[in-house]
Amino acid sequence: MSKKKVAKKKTTKKITTKKIAKKKAPKKRTKKKAFRKVTKKSTKKNVIRKKVNKQKDLLQDSIIELIRQTSTILPGDIQKVILEALEREKEGTTAKYAMSIIDANIKLAKSKSQPMCQDTGTILFFISHPAEFSELAFMKTANKAVVLATKKGYLRQNSVDTLTGANTTMNLGPGHPSFHFHEHKKKTIEVRLMLKGGGCENVGAQYALPNVSLDAGRDLDGVRKVILDAIIKAQGKGCGPGVLGICIGGDRGAGYIDSKEQLLRHLDDSSPNNTLADLERDIVNTANKLGIGPMGFGGKTTLLACKIGVLNRLPASYFVSISYMCWAYRRQGITLGSHNKISKWLY
Amino acid sequence: MKKLNFPFKREEIRALKVGDMVLISGKMFTGRDAIHKYLHDGNMPPVSLQDQIIYHCGPVVLEEKNNYRVIAAGPTTSIREEPYQWEVMRDHGILGVIGKGGMGPKTLEGCAKYGCVYFHAIGGAAQVLAEKIKSVDNVYLKEKFGSPEAIWELTVEEFPVVVTMDSHGNSLHEKVQAKSEANLKELL
């Protein structure tokens, strides 16, 4: 019973104010087999355990399929805004040309089941799980799946030893892949994956307000100024048109993580906070008046969407953390069913 | 839509202007960070680059029965080669560079002085671009630098690019940057 209470306490926060779940995860881990489907009969532990041992755990296969789909197929909400951007650009312009090649590339990657971009990016896992769950066991299986997906060519060998330059580990190493665990009230496990390429990660930015050179104060107008500055600076570099994930507040680390988690939202939603929802719309409208356009060629679409979250801050700090996602917005998610088989796609 | 066919000629390069959409057919050589540094350090290229095009790209290449097949080959960010690119134009006679994101004033000056252009390929479009590669004809310095950083000699057909820096001192990147900054001032 005490465990249940703990779980309830920890799951009352909204998505927009999520923090790193590692801190929140229960410290007691007594079970090795942690990915059993939680059923109504979960009190009869011994019976269930016997059953599960007989049937194959499909977690590894499910994660490989998640990686394959994420690397090769853009989810519907992202394809929709790309098609709208293609429509919007004027016939005969380089912007239209760029968007039509992007559109063709999306279709080709899907039909050939090959990575849509050769930079298969940082592998970011976001796992929402019930109280009875082992992070260590999950990471062990996910790491195996990553190596197999790399051998199959869904991922490029992309993890470099920062000091020696060696790239031999099939995407495993300190910080690779990147795991973010969150406990939630549901009884199912949800695994979200983002593959974020280096080009767009390089144009992310973090501002501390006030910023004198941009005349940006500690208010929403200041926040707007620094976001638009980041868009100007990213032009041509992050494979636009892109999407911004932004966190206002937090410390430097939490701000950047939340800015990435904003990119897990569906593109057609808007913030439940009216002030932030207005700012999200304003940033997209203003960015698309700048004339930067696809690939920085000039044109009507500079930004496809903007998602903004907020965290509390210290009296002395006011950070705005910005993550830029390229048009090759590779993120997908699954709900795990019995034996960790994929029961639902989340995007 | 313009066409540029191998063997490439300097006067055809001089005729290209910013904004031209071009389909390149023939030969190109990949080269990115390691190769540019290698040439800058005074080493001779293992193959002549005279009148050739360099592609800033680290392709994903599969090896099958003594044959290579490129399965993903989009451009990488070019600005990292800004310190070296003009030298490669001067010393090795290249007449085109393909990449993404554009390059800076040193390269723009090199383009004008030595008769070279910067072609922008579509970033992230690794499948469309890999399809235009018809054969892998050779590979150089693979043992030394590893597969993505090696020089891959490729034959391409109708490889789609846009001229964003020409040999007359014009840069689309400078123009869009200036215009977007002016637009922002009005919107703030």
What is the gist of this entry?
In chain A, helix 4 crosses helix 7 and helix 9 packs parallel to helix 11 (274-287).
Structural write-up:
- The complex is a heterodimer of chains A (347) and B (188).
- Chain A has 347 residues and is of the alpha+beta class.
- Chain A has helices spanning 2-10, 21-24, 45-54, 59-72, 76-88, 94-112, 135-151, 198-201, 220-234, 252-262, 274-287, and strands at residues 122-129, 178-183, 189-196, 205-208, 242-248, 303-310, 319-325, 330-336, 342-345.
- In chain B, the strands form two sheets. In chain B, strands 2-3-6-7-9 form a five-stranded mixed barrel. A two-stranded antiparallel sheet of chain B has the order 4-5.
- In chain B, helix 3 runs parallel beside helix 4.
- The N and C termini of chain B lie far apart (38 Å).
- The interface between A and B is large, with 42 and 42 residues.
Counted beta strands of chain A: 9
Helix content of chain B: 25-40%
- Distance linking N and C termini of chain B: 38 Å
How many helices of chain B? The count is 7
Tell me the fraction of residues in β-strands of chain B, as a range.
Answer: 25-35%
**Rounded to an integer, what's the Rg of chain A over CA atoms?**
21 Å
- What's the story with the biggest beta sheet of chain B? 5 strands, mixed, barrel
Oligomer: heterodimer
* Low-confidence sequence ranges of chain A: 1-34
Instruction: Report strand order across the widest sheet of chain A.
Output: 2-1-3-8-9
Strand arrangement across the biggest beta sheet of chain B: 2-3-6-7-9
Count of discrete alpha- or pi-helical segments spanning 4 or more residues of chain A: 11
Structural class of chain B: alpha/beta
Shape of chain B: globular
Given the C-alpha coordinates, what overall shape of chain A results? globular
Give the mean pLDDT of chain B. Answer: 95
Secondary-structure element pattern of chain A, one letter each: HHHHHHEHEEHEHEHHEEEE
Fraction of residues in β-strands of chain A: 15-25%
Number of domains of chain A: 2
